[in-house]
C-alpha cells in the first residue's frame, strides 16, 4: 500500500474531526454529515487496491500488520471503535512500531475523551517518526497533538504544537489549525495571515484546503469588508468540493454582495 495513501487517510480523519468540532463552536453552523460519506465513496476504489496490496505483502513477509491496520480503518469508518481498536492492537503485536496503528488507537481514545491516553499514543508514534527522521509522519503527528489540545480548548498548547509541526514541514493543516486558534482568540489579522500562508503550501487532503478557503472567505467578507475577495475564495472552496452545499451558498452570497457594490 502506498504510504502517502495511508498518510492522507488518517490526516483526513483527524483534520475533519477538528473542522467539525471547532467550526461549529465558532460560527454556530453545523457541517453537512454527508461530507464523510462523499469522501469515502471517492476513496473506495483506492481502498480496494490497498487491501489487495496489504494481502500480497502478508503472503510474502508473513506479517499481517498492514492487513490489521486496514481492517481497523474500515471498522473505524463504520464507527465500530471496539472492533477497530482490536485490529489495531493485533497490528501492534505484529509490528510494535506501526505508526498508523498507534495513531489509530490514539484517535479512538480521543473519541472516548481519554485525552491523556490519546496523547501518550500520539507521542509514542512521534518518537518512532523522529527516530527514523521521517518528516512527513513527524509533522502530521505534531499536528495531531495540536488538534488534541484544541479539542480540550488548550489554545496555547495547540499553537505550540502547530508551530512545531510547521518547523518540521510546512503544511496546510497546521496553518489551518493556527488560523483557527487565532480566530478563537479574536486575532483576526493573525488568523487571515496563517490561512493565507497555509494556502501557499501543500495539503495532505483537499477537505482542509477547501475549509481554509471557506474560513478565509468568511473573514474577508465579515472582517476585511471585501466581498469580491471573499467570493473568489469561496469559489475555490466550491471547486475543490462541489458536493458541499455551504461552499456554493457562500460563493453565491459573496458574489451578490460584490456585484451590488
If you had to describe this structure to a student in words, what would you say it looks like?
- The chain is built from 13 helices and no strands.
- α4 runs antiparallel to α5.
- The radius of gyration is 19 Å and the shape is elongated.
- By secondary structure, it is mainly alpha-helical.
- Residues 1-42 have low confidence and may be disordered.
Q: What is the structure about, briefly put?
A:
This protein is mainly α and 261 residues long. It is built from 13 helices and no strands.
Topology:
Elements: H1 3-27, H2 34-61, H3 65-77, H4 81-94, H5 99-111, H6 115-131, H7 135-151, H8 155-168, H9 172-184, H10 188-199, H11 206-222, H12 227-240, H13 245-259
Helix pairs in contact: 1-5, 1-7, 1-9, 2-3, 3-4, 3-5, 4-5, 5-6, 6-7, 7-8, 7-9, 8-9, 9-10, 10-11, 11-12, 12-13
Helix-strand pattern: HHHHHHHHHHHHH
Our count of helices gives 13
The residue-averaged pLDDT reads 84
Estimate percent helicity: over 70%
Derived structural class:
mainly alpha
- Taking all Cα atoms into account, the compactness measure Rg is 19 Å
Indicate the low-confidence ranges by residue numbers.
1-42
Number of strands: 0
The largest sheet, given as strand count, sense and whether it forms a barrel, is: none
Anisotropy-based shape: elongated
**Proportion of residues in β-strands:** under 5%
Distance linking N and C termini: 52 Å
